[in-house]
Each structure stands twice: as structure tokens, then as C-alpha cells.
Specification:
Blueprint: H1 10-39, H2 42-49, H3 58-64, H4 68-87, H5 96-104, H6 106-129, H7 137-177, H8 185-212, E1 224-234, E2 237-246, E3 249-255, E4 266-273, E5 277-279, H9 296-318, H10 323-343, E6 347-353, E7 358-363, H11 366-380, H12 389-402, E8 422-434, E9 440-450, E10 453-459, E11 463-466, E12 470-482, E13 484-491, E14 501-502, E15 505-506, E16 509-517, H13 520-523, E17 529-535, E18 538-548, H14 549-552, H15 582-594, H16 608-619, H17 625-630, H18 634-647, H19 658-664, H20 670-682, H21 686-703, H22 706-709, H23 713-725, H24 744-764, H25 772-776
Antiparallel strand pairs: 1-2, 1-7, 2-3, 3-4, 5-6, 6-7, 8-12, 8-18, 9-10, 9-11, 9-13, 13-16, 14-15, 17-18
Helix pairs in contact: 1-4, 1-7, 5-8, 6-7, 7-8, 9-10, 9-24, 15-18, 16-18, 23-24
Pfam families: C2, PH_19, RhoGAP, RhoGEF
Domain Rho-GAP: 567-761
InterPro entries: Abr/Bcr (IPR037769), C2_dom (IPR000008), C2_domain_sf (IPR035892), DBL_dom_sf (IPR035899), DH_dom (IPR000219), PH-like_dom_sf (IPR011993), PH_domain (IPR001849), Rho_GTPase_activation_prot (IPR008936)
Length: 784
Amino acid sequence: ALLIIPEPDLEKGLEMRKWVLSGILASEETYLSHLEALLLPMKPLKAAATTSQPVLTSQQIETIFFKVPELYEIHKEFYDGLFPRVQQWSHQQRVGDLFQKLASQLGVYRAFVDNYEVAMETAEKCCQANAQFAEISEVMSWYLFLMFLRLFFFTALLYKPVDRVTRSTLVLHDLLKHTPVSHPDHPLLQDALRISQNFLSSINEEITPRRQSMTVKKGEHRQLLKDSFMVELVEGARKLRHVFLFTDLFLCAKLKKQIGGKSQQYDCKWYIPLTDLSFQMVDESEAVPNIPLVPDEELDAMKIKISQIKNDIQREKRANKGSKVIERLKKKLSEQESLLLLMSPNMAFRVHNRNGKSYTFLISSDYERAEWRENIREQQKKCDFSLTSVELQMLTNSCVKLQTVHNIPLTINKEDDESPGLYGFLNVIVHSATGFKQSSNLYCTLEVDSFGYFVNKAKTRVYRDTTEPNWNEEFEIELEGSQTLRILCYEKCYNKTKLTKEDGESTDRIMGKGQIQLDPQALQDKDWQRTVISMNGVEVKLSVKFTSREFSLKRMPSRKQTGVFGVKIAIVTKRERSKVPYIVRQCVEEIERRGMEEVGIYRVSGVATDIQALKAAFDVNNKDVSVMMSEMDVNAIAGTLKLYFRELPEPLFTDELYPNFAEGIALSDPVAKESCMLNLLLSLPEPNLVTFLFLLDHLKRVAERESVNKMSLHNLATVFGPTLLRPSEKDSKIPANPTQPITMTDSWSLEVMSQVQVLLYFLQLETIPTPDSKRQSILFSTEV
């Protein structure tokens, strides 16, 4: 069928067509260089064939290099024709004739593929037959070339030419998308696309049975050491891969879609012998690939959908519904989990092949990145490498049986588990560490898993010049279905010139890492649990205490009935003209003075003991509170501000109006939503309103520095939404359809999402029209 598209915007279409064509020019250059490298020894081999000691016969040379010169000439002509046209680009410029001619010569590719099996067998036999000449110096170079050819043949002579047609087909799709139907190129490009698609269909039908027919030989010494799903960054796009670390190579594979009940299969994308693998060192001047970031609201929407599907599965099981319904739900769950795994990681992990090719993966945790590096480096000390093309294909096929990680993603396919992780808050005290061999500047970070990937949640202060740091710092960490707590210990490097730069960013040195499983049974008694984590000869002492989600949903007002933390917001301050509470003003001022560029401000936990000390100072109206704040970590000040709003007897948005805000944010008509939300906002008591507007302006200023502090409007809404809106009662005020019962997980997820969306709505409004009198009352005094 012909591809019919509407007329695109001419200017935009012109620019996009040039961009697409520039991309194909760059890839053509690379492809031609590959063919040139392969053709380079062909003339010497032919010359040697006429001597008394030929390395290969003329027939063998013809078989191995069959149609490669013709492929080179075809693409050289295509490149030479396309280059000047792109250089002199205009709306009337035509390129369709070049693509049509290229497609008409696909018969050369057909002959190449038909000859492939014979060519590969010939190359293998020649390598084995010429092994006897390895000790003869005159023939040594030819022998090495043949060994190289045997390794190179499968990837370069089979996949690269066919891959060229595949890429050309994708380019034709893109060109047609941005080419007006009235343009002379349009019918030519459609004809080229039709020919290319037909060719690829016939080639795939022939190659697929060959790949499936291979099996793994028994008794192989190669062993699988580690495998994992990982996200590869390919030309700016995220691709889900399954990565395998064997005793002698690092292999990246793509899981093929299962069709018609066929068994699971992999396609090998690329591999690197461990003897050739290094970790990319990035110079200051070197450009690091831009990582495409996914908006936080999209990630949160995926998490909500995953929670809902899991609860649908449990509900169907309890209702003893048919297995077909449950299987459909499990398929939807797997799709959503795969999508979340694909979109969430943003930390670069780069591997480099000494032939010059680099690959970039995206992972979520420094722990995982360090683990992969350690495993690879350890194996490099004792590995040797030898791999034929046939062995590579057999190895790829064997990955289905060898893989140890079957579910996508790694930790969240737990629909059969009645206790899929912990929800609530985990208090962690990092006490001390021993076992360091020399004095260093040391600190720790804490990670927990959330929806299948790990997130950095807290960081201790740097304990300087010691072998036995005593941090004794407490953190409160929110858990979302978490099952594991990880701790990483770093040496802080203050001399940036001596810092090792990998993956495009400066990193301190990891001294040790370890983890503990969060056992729901052991943590249910609400008492502190002491534990020791051993890591590379270092021992870190921790205490943990868990507060369940059900308990944490309750608003916990301060027990103190006088002072800053103990009363309603309307009577916090003494001066009527200062409706914004003193603690709010002081914390905001200090954060705006020195915390606006702090990475993760309001998200990263402050030290709990510092927060409690600052709270106590505000409780007694301590005149020295400003001095305390100036000497305190800015994350502790941010934590104090959040704690103030959490401990108010009722939320800033009030218990009375909270259900109305939840209903208003659910309206679909934007005009009705704006009218409803603004009227509700103006219905708040005046002290509540002016305090919220003061905080809102501050949070917008924080988000203006997002490029540095990594705190978007959505991130800030996620942190403050539940704090400002969570009602005094645990029970949800969100109306639910009585025909669709909602479990605790659904209720919690939906309620939190609603609270986040309410705050995000106001953060995204450019202006909020309010009476001048209420705006003017934001003017404040620094007196208590």
C-alpha cells in the first residue's frame, strides 16, 4: 500500500528532509569505510594466488569476496550523487531518483546473501587449512588476516549489507513523512520503499530458519557470569537490551518478539572480547552524548498504572476468574514495566572497544555501574579469547537457556507475591565504619529500589581525614514497594585535577558497597534493628526502623501545644501584618541564600538529628536560630520546612476543602478546572492563602534552577503535594466508583497522585489572580 500523508509545513519539512539526508550521508561514509577495509587485502591475495605458494586459490578468493566490490561501487556512486545535492539544498532539490536507482540494484544484495553460507564455510576451511603455516614468518601476516577475517566475516559480510538495506528503508519512511505529495520525489521514494520492503521480507524468510537451526555444542568452556536488562543509548534513542557477561566476552542482545507461540529468541547486536574492552575515559573537551530525559509526570503515570494492574491481578485471583483474563493482565503489566525500565535510568555507563567503537548504557544506580566494572575487570585478568562466527551465533541462541534474569524489569515482576515490598517510611541511622587502610575523606549514600530500579535517597556529611568515621546521622527515606537497601561508601576527592573521569562526569572513588534485604516480618515490630554491612573489608554499622504506609498516611500533628510546631498556622505569628509563619520565612530565606543550586534540594533527606535540633530551637523561639541555620547543612533546613507543614494539625489546604480540590483537579474541561481551582484557592483562610502563595513563589524560583539542582516543578510537587494536602484522617476523601473496589495500594497511589497534581496545577499557572489585600499581606517582618 502507498503511504499517503497530508501536506507538511514546507519550511519545517525542508529542514527535516535535509536533516534525514545528512544522517544517511554520515552512515554511508561509515559503511563505505567498512567495505574498503574488507577489500584492502583482496588485491594482494589475488597476486599471491598466481605464485607457487598461494595463500588462497583464485576460486576461494572469488567465493569469499563475492559481490563485495560491486556493493562498494553501488554505494560509492550513491554517496557521490547525494553529497552535492545536500550541500546545495533547496525545496526543489530532488533525491528520489538516487534512492530509486539504489533500490533497483538490490539484486546484488540478493546474490550476496545467496552466496553467504558457501562464503562462510570457505573462510572457515581456509583458516583451518592455513594454520600449518603459522610458524612461517612469510605467511604469518596472512594467517593473522585470515583469523581476523573469520571473526569479522559474520558481522561485516552478512549483517552490515542487510543492515544497510534496513536503514535505507527507515530513511525512506522518514523522507516520505516530510515530503509533500505534490513534490516530484514523492512517487520515486514510494517506489524505492516498496522495492526495499519486498526485498527485506524475502531475505528475512531465508535467514531466520538458518539462525534457528543452530544449537549450542556441549562441553563448551565459556560460562555465563552475569546478565541483566539494560538500556542502550543508540543515536539518541533508548533501546532495551539484555546484556550478557561471559568468561571471555561482553555481549549485547535484543530480545525478539515472540510470534505464533515460538520460543524466545535473541538477536546479537554487538559484542566486545574482554581483552579489547575498556571503560571510556572522557576528556573535558570531549562531547558526551545527550541523554534524552523523560518528564517525571510520565514516569509517575507509569507507576500508577503498574500499581493498578497488579491490584487487578490480585482481585481476579481472589474472584477465581479464568486464567485468560489474568494472562492478559500480566502481559499488560510486563509492557508497562518494560516501558518504565526503558524510560527511567539516566546514569551513563560506557564501554569501549579498542577498535574505536564506544557504546553507552543508561542505568539508575552507581552501585550497579560499579558492580559491572568490578566483574569485568576481575575477569579480564584471567581471560583469553577465541570466537568463530558460527560460535557467535550459537552463543547468541544459547542465551535463552543461559539467562538468569528472566523478568523485565529486574525486581518488580512480583504479581504472584502477596507482599510485594514495603510502602511507608524507613528511618536509617548510619553510625560508623571501620576497616579503611588509610585516612580519607569519607561519606556514604543510601539507595532503595522503587518500581524496579534504584534511587539515591540520602547522603551523609563528609567525615574528613579518618580511618574510622563516626557519622551517627539519621535519615527518613520514603519506600515505594521497596525490598532492598543499598549503601555505598565513597572517598571524597577535592582535587579535581586528580579525579578519574568516566562516563562524562566527575565521580568520587567508591571504597565499598553492600546491601540488605528489607524483611517485612523483621521490620514490623517498629523497634530499631541494628545491622552491620560488610563490603570489601570495610564494615558499616546501621540501625533501621520502619513505619508502614497505613500509619504514614495519617497526618501526625506536633504533640507540643505551644510554640511554632504546635499550633494552627493562623496564630503562629504575633504580628497581624506578617501572616507568613516565621519558620517558613526563615527557612525559605536561608535556602534561597545558599541552597538554590543544591542538587536534589527538598528531595534529598537532611540529617534527622539536625532537623530535630532546629525544630526544638523554633519551638522555644530561640533567638539564635539564624546562627544555627547558617552553620547547618541546607538539606536539614529543607527537611525542617517540610516537617513543619507535615506536623500542622490540619493541612494547609484544610480538611474541609481537600475533597473539593481532589474533585476539581479531575475535571477534564480546562476552563471549568481553572475556575474551580482558583475559586477553591481563594476560599482558603487568609493566613493559609498568603503562606501558600509565598511558598509557591519560592518553589517556582527553585525550579528555575532545574538545570543545576535537578528539581523540576513536578519533582517539587511530588515532594510537597502530600505534605500540603494530606488530610488529618487516614481515610481517602477521593470518591470511588462502588462497582470498582479499590485496594489499599490503589487508594494510596491515587490519593498521592491527586495531591501531587493539585500542587503541580498551581505551580504551572503563570499568574494567580488574587485580591491585592491578600497579596500585600505577604510582606513580612523578621521579628517573631
